[in-house]
Every structure is written in structure tokens, then in C-alpha cells.
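User: Just a sanity check before I run the rest of the batch. Below are the C-alpha cells for the first item. I only need the designed sequence back.
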């Protein structure tokens, strides 16, 4: 005799007071039990360690203590969903360019493996930054310890992005002037190490240090002005403008700074708390601006690479 299919659905309140929807399906004697935790919480309901932005009032996934529950949160909307996907999808695109670089990157007769290393370096830095960010935003509801660890990874990813962006464009900017390339690459690495150390310090993570965090990374980014000034003194403005596609690098800087400012002042949620919880709050705008800035850098890098090989 064939057993009939029986499906029961019921809502239960667990010990932690979390509303769960429990769906139990019995089919041909086997049971497949799945629990979906989808109840979102408000600022007042979440524990102190989860509180970061008091202008985001709802849409929180409360502490899960479960990697699986964090993973499941990828499949329903909450106030980190847009933060996760705005970096996950571009991050995967960057990885695919590295895997298929011989197809994705225009090839000249003078192109060598060093060109692939330099261009892939940028994509690797971008991939690291975007993936660490989306992993952090996915896991930050796990527990205080995991959130702290993920936050450090997030900062390390930003350092990787800045270092790889700078070194790759310096390579083409200072073709024919290796000492300048080594000096400014060394300076970039030193800044990167300094930012890494500062990112790993506990005090640096706190809410009160938010403007300092943003400021330190902007200063790191602005240190890019030094090799640009050196280039202008050495080659002149016109030559520098085309060598490193300066127009795109200026746009990149504007997007990064705009993102950091929004992140620092928490606009627009500051002026209308609760309205931008799921869509449109400052961190989401910051993510979109970071990706836009990275694309400007990519445009500059590819322009510099092509120009260099066309002139050989
Ligand atoms: Zn983020």
C-alpha cells in the first residue's frame, strides 16, 4: 500500500522567544523536517553587541549562533541582504576574470606574463575585498566573536583592494622609471601594513572610532596623490594624464570619498530613521560607490595597459 503524503505546518515559539515556522513533510514513510527562522527583529530587541547604527530600527536577524542559519539568511530579505549581494555578485565577476584572464584581457603582441600578473593583482585585491565584505555581512549575525573576526577580515579586504589598485597602476605609470615604481610601491605596502595593524586593534573597532576608521582609510587612498605629483614633476601633466588615465583615477577618488563620507555620517538614515532599514541606507550606498570606484580604477588600468603596448 502506498502511504499518503502528509504535510503539517505549524508556528512555534522556541525557548529564545523566536518565532519559527516549522514545516514537516512525511512522504512514503520518510520524514524531511526543515525549520526556517525568518522573524526579523527591531533595534530594541537585539543584544547590545549587535547594535551599530541606531538609525536602522528594524530588519535585524537576531544572533543565530549557527553558521547554517546565517547561510539561510541569504534567501530572505533583511537589513544586511543588500550589503551582502552588492559585494558578492561583483566579487564573483572579478574572480571569473582572473580564471579566464586570457580571454577577458585584450592581448597585444608585446603582452607578457607580467601584464597578466599586474592586471590579475588588481582583480585579486578586488575579489578579496568584495568577498570578505560579503562574508562579513552574512556572518555578522552569528555571534559577537564571529562578528568581530569578520569585521577584521572586512578591513583587511579594504587594505588588499587599495594596495593592489595602487601597485597595478604604478607599474604602468612608471614604466621606464623602475626606482619610482619601487619607492611608491614600498610606500603603499608600508601604509597597508599600518592600516592592517590599526584594523586589528580592538579599540579601533568601536562605534566611537567610526570617523577615525573612515579617515584613516581615506588618508591611505589619498597617499596616491604622492606618486601622481611625482609623475607630473617627472613627465609633465599631459603625459601623466594619459599614462595613468588620470581622469578615471580622479573619478575613482571622488566615489571612494563620497562612500566614506556617507558611511561616516550615516546619511540618509540619519534624517529619517527606520525608512531606509532594508533599502537605501548609508552602508549600502557605500558598497555601491566602492564597486563604482573599483570599476573606474579598472577603466584606468586597462587604458594605461593598452596605451603602453600601443606605444611599444
Ligand atoms: Zn560593508
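Assistant: Here's the designed sequence for the first item:
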Amino acid at each position: 500500500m502506498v502511504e499518503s503524503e502528509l504535510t503539517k505546518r505549524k508556528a512555534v515559539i522556541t525557548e529564545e522567544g523566536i518565532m519559527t515556522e516549522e514545516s514537516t513533510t512525511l512522504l512514503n514513510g520518510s520524514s524531511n523536517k526543515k525549520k526556517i527562522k525568518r522573524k526579523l527583529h527591531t533595534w530594541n530587541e537585539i543584544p547590545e553587541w549587535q547594535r551599530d547604527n541606531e538609525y536602522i530600527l528594524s530588519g535585524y536577524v537576531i544572533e543565530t549562533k549557527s553558521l547554517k542559519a546565517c547561510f539561510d539568511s541569504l534567501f530572505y530579505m533583511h537589513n544586511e541582504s543588500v550589503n551582502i549581494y552588492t559585494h558578492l555578485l561583483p566579487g564573483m565577476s572579478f574572480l571569473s576574470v582572473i580564471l579566464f584572464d586570457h580571454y577577458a584581457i585584450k592581448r597585444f603582441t608585446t603582452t607578457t606574463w607580467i601584464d597578466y600578473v599586474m592586471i590579475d593583482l588588481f582583480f585579486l585585491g578586488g575579489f578579496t575585498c568584495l568577498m570578505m565584505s560579503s562574508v562579513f555581512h552574512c556572518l555578522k549575525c552569528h555571534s559577537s566573536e564571529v562578528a568581530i573576526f569578520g569585521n577584521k577580515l572586512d578591513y583587511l579586504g579594504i587594505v588588499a583592494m587599495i594596495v593592489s589598485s595602487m601597485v597595478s597602476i604604478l607599474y604602468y605609470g612608471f614604466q621606464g622609471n623602475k626606482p619610482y615604481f619601487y619607492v611608491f610601491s614600498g610606500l603603499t605596502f608600508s601604509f597597508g601594513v599600518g592600516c592592517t595593524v590599526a584594523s586589528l586593534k580592538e579599540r579601533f573597532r568601536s562605534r566611537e572610532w567610526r570617523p577615525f576608521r573612515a579617515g584613516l582609510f581615506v588618508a591611505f587612498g589619498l597617499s596616491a596623490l604622492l606618486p601622481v605629483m611625482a609623475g607630473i614633476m617627472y613627465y609633465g601633466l599631459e603625459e601623466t594624464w594619459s599614462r595613468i588615465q588620470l581622469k578615471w583615477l580622479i573619478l575613482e577618488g571622488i566615489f571612494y570619498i563620497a562612500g566614506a563620507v556617507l558611511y561616516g555620517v550615516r546619511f540618509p538614515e540619519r534624517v529619517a530613521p527606520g525608512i531606509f532599514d532594508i533599502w537605501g541606507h548609508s552602508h549600502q550606498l557605500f558598497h555601491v560607490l566602492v564597486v563604482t570606484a573599483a570599476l573606474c580604477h579598472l577603466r584606468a588600468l586597462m587604458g594605461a595597459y593598452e596605451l603602453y603596448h600601443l606605444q611599444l
